[in-house]
Amino acid sequence: MPDPGDFYQLSLGYRLDDKNILFFNGLTWKYPAPLGIPLYDSSFGSADEEYPGYVRAFGFGVGYQRFIWEGLFASLYATPFLQKFYTSDNQYLNSGFQLFLQGQLGYQIDFFKGRLYLKPALSFNYWPVNTDFPDTFQQKEKNWPNYIFFEPHLNIGFRF
Question: Half-sphere exposure (CA, 13 Å, Cβ side) for 43?
């Protein structure tokens, strides 16, 4: 893939108590193919499945995390995205909307008395609303589901 996707996220959390955290997330990503292609599928990363351009999405969302036992946690997130569709030569086509929902199960590993942490997790992602895809993009999108099971995550964070 000559022009890989990119992903940036800033997450600010507010600890309600020892077990509950509320998150506010700002995210942007760029992707050249349908999100629903499974990592283990031979079509993942295939140029045949790429859009005739790419999608750039911007979103702000909220999340809730509950520590279940020691570092084991479960989280839920909801992020509305404004999506912009571009051709391969960066010409703007149109905009759409996506509602991206995510559930996570993971474990937080603390370092330096909890000031720094790693959070490996597995996610279930579902986007029930995904509007205004250009026809040429929709031809690729319609072949894949609107969910991903067991997507791996590794977040690194620090506390102020």
Answer: 15
